[in-house]
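Workshop exercise sheet. Pairs work together: one partner reads the sequence aloud, the other fills in the structure field after running the prediction. Swap roles for the next sheet.
Pair: D.N. / O.F.
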Amino acid sequence: MSHLRTRHSIGAILAGALPLLSLGHWGCGDNGSISVHFTSGTVSETARCSGNRGEFPLRQSDGLEVIIIVTDETTIVRANFNAATCSDIVAGTQASVRGSNQSGGIQATEIEIGS
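Structure field:
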């Protein structure tokens, strides 16, 4: 049981200490890579949404601003795990994002909003 707590604590420390973490993975026999990013910060501007799609700038704690791209496949939840939508992403909200590189930003697979 303590082993699971230790793994969780290390993950939490890494997530807090590294606002943008890029992990490369190469499969056996392929020349491609998959890059997964984890970042958190404050939503700089309310998301521009069209249905379940949209984008918004996220200012990280180091001041770097990245564009987060929301697609129909993006899962958005509040900190209390209630479902949310693109229109719930408003300026000043804290957000944690997991996604992959997309030209000009990070295409989000999961977004958690609120504190």
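Discussion prompt: The chain is about 15% helix and 45% strand. What would you look at next?
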